[in-house]
Specification:
mainly alpha; 2 strands
């Protein structure tokens, strides 16, 4: 009985020693399958750049409006003619409002440009044309 157990133990050790080598040869014989990496969709940042550039231009323009409004107000304070005083005051108020509107609009456009550049996900095309032997000719997604 001891010989039988010893023979069984020897056979199992021999098989255990040979099997990993056999598996390694089988795995090394087949190359790894190539998995294609899908290309990321190309995004255009033209609208984002245009929006931010326009916003920066409006913010820069608001400083010009503000400076002109301050000069008109200084002229208003030095003026002595009642008609001229009224005109200079109206111009100063109009330029000040233009400066404020230009600054706020420019900041909103900068924020919109940042949204377009970094936060918005690209739209998925709902209609596409695919040519190939195993593909449908026209694809419509809902």
């Amino acid at each position: 009985m001891r010989k039988l157990v010893a023979a069984g133990l020897a056979a199992s050790l021999t098989c255990a020693a040979l099997l990993p080598a056999a598996r390694a040869l089988a795995q090394a014989a087949d190359p790894f399958p190539e998995v294609p990496i899908p290309a990321s969709p190309k995004r255009s940042y033209a609208w984002a750049i245009l929006t931010m550039a326009t916003g920066a231009g409006l913010i820069g323009g608001s400083f010009g409006f503000s400076d002109t409004a301050n000069r008109r107000y200084a002229e208003y304070l030095r003026a002595t003619d009642p008609g001229r005083i009224s005109d200079l005051y109206d111009q100063a108020i109009t330029l000040d409002r233009l400066s404020t509107g230009s600054l706020v609009t420019g900041e909103a456009l900068i924020a919109a440009g940042l949204y377009l550049a970094f936060l918005r996900r690209p739209e998925v095309s709902r209609l596409g044309l695919t040519l190939g032997p195993s593909r449908c000719g026209v694809l419509l997604r809902y």
